[in-house]
Design goal:
Order of helices and strands: EEEHEEHEHHHEHEHEEHH
Strand content: 25-35%
Pfam families: ABC_tran
Keywords: ATP-binding, Nucleotide-binding
Number of strands: 10
Organism: Dictyoglomus turgidum (strain DSM 6724 / Z-1310)
GO molecular function: ATP binding; ATP hydrolysis activity
CATH class: Alpha Beta
Bound molecules: adenosine-5'-triphosphate
Number of domains: 1
CATH architecture: 3-Layer(aba) Sandwich
Largest sheet: 6 strands, mixed
Protein name: ABC transporter related
Strand order of the largest sheet: 6-7-8-3-9-10
Length: about 240
């Protein structure tokens, strides 16, 4: 399978804190690749570097054959990022927000309409899109932002804890949406603390702790290796 993203020996320090200590992995085309690890393991730092929002202290990121250092614009055009603590503009209406974001990515007015229509479908928010975002529940905001992240059908969607804080039904819906987009050609790099979600969504998982990758494989491979019933047990054994 073709590789869409290569992360090579990534290091990142914040002052004295070494958040990443040489992290390498790759994401194949059409794959959902998940990062799991305890709080502070370095997941968000990794995702933010790939999304070009942070620069690494050392190492390389190669996306679709292009090094991020020289091609940040290309990367930004083809990657979308859903941050963990994403707020949206509270005083904007949902639809205004989608239009505003669509104009950044669209090459012409026709694309703007295509993106907005796609986002309407993904969000499932129908009439509520005419209301101000300040009146939305947490689940509605998450859906709006996921719709924004996927509406361009990016080559790679980076989703930091896509369903955190959502109830079971909303989380299920969001997972289904993500899987649909993978069928249409989007690769996904995500982080999550929810092992059920990871088993349902991911093709491969990387377990990270203290800025290093400890294991990579499919959920099945990891469960077999650690004679574990589920990923939670794998996680416990690897991280302890
Ligand atoms: N802006 C920052 N300044 C200083 N230290 C930071 C900063 N951002 C992250 N760190 C530190 O880097 C390390 C990795 O943090 P990161 O947010 O990447 O972890 P994470 O795996 O995403 O954690 P969580 O699961 O809690 O979201 C932690 O020790 C954290 O305190």
């Amino acid at each position: 399978m073709e590789t869409i993203l290569q992360v090579e020996d990534l290091k990142k320090s914040y002052g004295k804190i070494e958040a990443l200590k040489g992290l390498s992995f790759e994401v194949k085309k059409g794959e959902v690749f998940a990062l799991i690890g305890p709080n502070g393991a370095g997941k968000t730092t990794t995702l933010r570097i790939v999304a070009t929002l942070l620069t690494p202290s050392e190492g390389n990121v190669v996306f679709m054959g292009k090094n991020l250092k020289e091609h940040a614009d290309f990367v930004r055009e083809n990657i979308s990022y859903l941050p963990e603590e994403a707020g949206a503009y509270k005083n904007m209406r949902g639809l205004e927000y989608l239009r505003f974001m669509a104009t950044f990515y669209a090459k012409n007015e026709r694309d703007v309409e295509i993106f907005i229509n796609r986002a309407k479908e993904i969000s499932g928010l129908s009439d509520r899109l005419s209301d101000k975002i300040g009146t939305y529940s947490k689940g509605m905001i998450r859906k709006l932002l996921l719709a924004r992240a996927l509406m361009t059908k990016p080559a790679l969607a980076i989703l930091d804890e896509p369903t955190s804080g959502l109830d079971v039904m909303n989380a299920l819906e969001i997972r289904e949406i993500i899987r649909e987009y993978v069928k249409e050609g989007t690769s996904v790099l995500l982080s999550s603390h929810n092992m059920l979600e990871i088993e349902f969504l991911s093709d491969r998982v990387a377990l990270i702790d203290k800025g290093r990758i400890l294991e990579v494989g499919t959920a099945e491979e990891l469960k077999e290796k650690y004679s574990a019933k589920n990923l939670e047990e794998v996680f416990r054994r690897v991280v302890q």
